[in-house]
Amino acid sequence: MTDPSAVSAVAAGGQGAAAGGQGEAGGAGDVLVRSARREDMPRVHEMIHELAAFEGFPQGPAIALDDLLRDGFDSSPPWFFTLVAERGGGAGGAGGGELVGYALCNRAYSSWTARAFYVEDLYVVPSLRRAGVGRRLLGHLAQMAVAEGVSRVDWHVAEGNAAARAFYRGLGARDLRTSEGRAALRLDQPHIHALARTH
Fold first, then answer.
1. Is 123 a catalytic residue?
2. Where is the N-acetyltransferase domain (predicted)?
3. How far apart are CA 150 and CA 142, in angstroms?
4. What is the pLDDT of residues 88-132, one digit of tens each?
5. 123 and 113 in contact (C-beta within 8 Å)?
6. What are phi and psi of 193, to 5 degrees?
7. pTM score, two decimals?
8. In which band, very low, low, confident or very high, does the pLDDT at 10 lie, cut at 50, 70 and 90?
9. In this predicted structure, what is the pLDDT of residue 96?
10. How far is residue 25's CA from residue 59's CA, in Å, rounded to a whole number?
11. Given the DSSP bridges, would you call strands 17-19 and 152-154 parallel, antiparallel or unpaired?
């Protein structure tokens, strides 16, 4: 995750964070967190690009809306799940309001602790950062974790984003570089293909 207010989650691999994190002053009373629906994804796709611009990548990610629909709704099982923060929607999460944030996550598995969640992105629109929306998104994810028997939630945060790091520490998150001496690694597609060709 990146900004505390733009809390991007580079939790177990992703890179996106603009939430509204640490020291959030409340003000999210009319915001409801719910599972994303197919019709929400165009706005989620826009927010993914807003997050990329916030993090200094205005060209944006290569992912297309069709990728999100295919992998999140047409695949069985889906490759990811998304929570959205909606302001001014209908009662009981009926929809129709303004989407002001999202958390894009996936299910993972640990050989040490079994079930896990990984947060790829956590984002809140600038006007509502520090208003409690980021905490509300993570709180909803924590409720899901309890209900599904998940024992850990992982993400990454930009090293230079001191505000986000402070926000996460306030939630009880620990820095695995310090506590376990772990570095995050990634194999990009060209290297994946090169490795695949050797076998």
1. no
2. 31-192
3. 9
4. 876 666 667 999 999 999 999 999 999 999 999 999 999 998 899
5. no
6. -65, -40
7. 0.84
8. very low
9. 78
10. 32
11. unpaired
Give residue for tokens 């790829």. 120
| High-pLDDT (> 90) share of the chain, % | 61
Residue whose entry in the numeric block shows the structure tokens 């580079």 = 10
Closest CA to 3 of 199, 177, 175, 168: 168
Q: What tokens appear for 142 in the block?
A: 């924590």
* CA atoms within a 13 Å half-sphere pointing along the CA-CB vector of 93: 10
Burial bucket for residue 69 (CB in 10 Å: 0-12, 13-18, 19+) = middle
Q: How far apart are the C-alpha atoms of 187 and 45, rounded to whole Å?
A: 24
SS3 71: helix
Q: Which one from 102, 118, 123, 168 is the annotated catalytic residue? A: 168
Cβ atoms of 153 and 117 within 8 Å: the answer is: yes
Picking from 91, 151, 142, the residue whose alpha carbon sits closest to that of residue 116 is 151
- The interaxial angle of helices 133-148 and 162-171, nearest 10 deg, is 40
Q: Is 92 helix (H, G, I), strand (E, B) or coil?
A: coil
Identity of the amino acid at 183: A
Q: What is the mean pLDDT of the chain?
A: 85
Domain 5-197 class, CATH top level? alpha beta
Residue 180: what pLDDT? 85
Listed by start position, the domains of the chain span 5-197
